[in-house]
Amino acid sequence: MSSQFGRVTIRQAANSKLESHIHKAVFPGTFDPCTNGHADVAIRAAKLFDEVVVAVYETPPKTLLFDTDERIALFEEAVAGVDNITVMPFSGMAVQFAESIGSTVLVRGLRIGLDFEHEREMALVWRKLAPEIEVVMLTSSLVNQYVSSTRVKEIASLDADVSSFVPAHVEKALLERLGKSG
């Protein structure tokens, strides 16, 4: 009866999804710098998708500590050894970038409650702009629930230990950039 009115049944929707297996996902962000939480989300996404493209935003509307090439290199080292993760720059809108590389999925990480509201709003805007793009949100691991690049930079600038929040190579780069001895 539902097909009489042009509606898709749940079974039809599930079957069509099986036919269009999702191979590639995009995990966009500024990653200034890459944290343990970012790496965790990327690595977990790599278990769900054939390929994960970590898309490093080139021109965010905020002041950056690291340039695009540095942010790419830091993230690449953080996920070294995970063969199905690629890190590359992007500009413009994340949904347009995803479409340009043949992806229909954007991955986002959720930490605290406030993240959910922000990410939900962004997902709804993306859905309006590109209805064929799905947004998959992965909840951060418990140990990374409160970790953000902004907090990491603030903590490091105040000479406090950030070793539990970022990979060792990121900590070293961060301390060097801030002129701290570590």
Structural account:
This protein is of the alpha/beta class. The chain has a single domain, classed as Rossmann fold, CATH 3.40.50.620. Helices cover 42% and strands 17% of the residues. It has a five-stranded parallel sheet with strand order 3-2-1-4-5, sandwiched between helices.
Write the topology of this structure.
Elements: H1 10-19, E1 24-29, H2 36-48, E2 51-57, H3 68-78, E3 85-90, H4 94-100, E4 105-110, H5 113-129, E5 134-139, H6 149-157, H7 168-177
Parallel strand pairs: 1-2, 1-4, 2-3, 4-5
Name some characteristics of this structure.
globular; Rossmann fold; five-stranded parallel sheet; disordered N terminus; single chain; 7 helices; 182 residues; alpha/beta
Number of helices: 7
**Mind telling me the CATH class?**
Alpha Beta
Radius of gyration: 18 Å
**CA(first)-CA(last) distance:** 68 Å
How would you characterize the largest beta sheet? 5 strands, parallel
In the sheet with the most strands, the strands line up as: 3-2-1-4-5
Which consecutive residue ranges, at least 5 long each, have pLDDT under 50?
1-5
What is the CATH homology-level superfamily? HUPs
The CATH topology assignment is Rossmann fold
Average pLDDT level: 89
Beta-strand segment tally: 5
- Helical amount: 40-55%
Q: In one word, what is the shape?
A: globular
Number of domains: 1
SSE order, as H and E? HEHEHEHEHEHH
* Annotated CATH architecture: 3-Layer(aba) Sandwich
Structural class: alpha/beta
Estimated share of beta-strand residues:
15-25%
